[in-house]
Amino acid sequence: MHQMTLAEIARGLADKKFSSEELTKVLLARITQLDPQLNSFISLTEELALEQAKAADARRANGESGALLGAPIAHKDLFCTQGIRTSCGSKMLDNFKAPYDATVVAKLAAAGAVTLGKTNMDEFAMGSANESSWYGAVKNPWNLEHVPGGSSGGSAAAVAARLLPAATATDTGGSIRQPAAFTNLTGLKPTYGRVSRWGMIAYASSLDQGGPLARTAEDCAILLQGMAGFDQNDSTSIDEPVPDYSASLGDSLQGLRIGVPKEYFSAGLDPRIAELIQNSIKELQKLGAVIKEISLPNMQQAIPAYYVIAPAEASSNLSRFDGVRFGHRCENPENLIDLYKRSRGEGFGPEVQRRIMVGAYALSAGYYDAYYLKAQKIRRLVKNDFMAAFNEVDIILGPTTPNPAWKLGAKNSDPVAAYLEDVYTITANLAGLPGLSMPAGFVDGLPVGVQLLAPYFQEGRLLNVAHQYQLNTDWHTRTPTGF
Ligand code: GLN
Question: What domains sit in the chain, N to C, each tagged with a CATH number?
């Protein structure tokens, strides 16, 4: 039962092969049994799950239908869930019970999805390995000595280990696509503004975007359908109609123009990954796609620009966690300054403190022009590169990451080494474009992802290409041993 995809679950529920309650019980038992190896959940919400499953079964008995009605999912622990701990992977919010549901949570609940729990994540979504969580590192089910990627490592590890079929995640600089690549999943970061950020605890507001993590493009289409849409509570949400993502999955790829940036195949890329990417290109050519070499000349500037902009926004967003308005409060403060200092010093981990300091520095008088303003200019150049490329091609294809999942602890002493691993993903966030990662093979038993980028609001095109690829390859069906 745990092997089923969302699409298979929807068919099984519609055909009355099993109930949502039965399935929910099976998955909750599986999580209890297997998750101690992975640490992918921060909170399990058993009571809520069983209540929602029963309600979904009752709605089906009354003649309602829908792909998410009775479907078990989990939320990354930065989506606010009413009355349930929403920790953001931080000691700072260990005791925070959100007073309301995030729009994404409310929308999925209304569609009948069943919340099994809240998944582990890098503290405040800062990281690429899921090692900065206050609740401990998450392990990669493909090799328990390796990281699952981050910051949505809990959602990725849980779905890859078949503890559940799909989960929500967020992507500020790659945190949906990179863990998807490291755990053999399909993950989609939508266009900025496509999915509401209301109730999603902010890391870098101009970059953050929620999206689905699942095993197939077909399932990402189902979950995205439930998440996307205009929200008047989010002033950056865009009032564009949401297309039927499942309806375009079957479109032919005949004549699809795929751009492959020449800068992607430079020295930093593991040659074994380069070869797998070339194989995926050949596969898509067989399906009728036409390949064109393109150039994204400002790509190398994207990492330094991102690592100024994201910390700058974070330093501002995280100022609310001061022990007064939000978050952990220290014992017996001597005065107000002592309260702030110790509450923040105790509540935030080292990576979060580092980013707040970098961000505050980049925004300070005298340095603003040299760092923040410069980074924003680079951001525009990165966007312009994409706009020029999309005049010539329909999709951009390349690796999701330069290397496969590294060993736990391998990059802990050198944060910049981890930042460099984001080279292929962060440009989409800087430009606000949609991006998808899908399984493309293995290196030393570890999964490798291929990334597809599309013009604004072309999530349907990404899902279509990935689905056609998945109909003709079986990488996405591989299961990690022991799960
Ligand atoms: N690795 C990037 C960072 O640490 C991206 C994280 C994310 O997308 N949330 O900022």
Answer: 6-253+443-448+462-477 (3.90.1300.10)
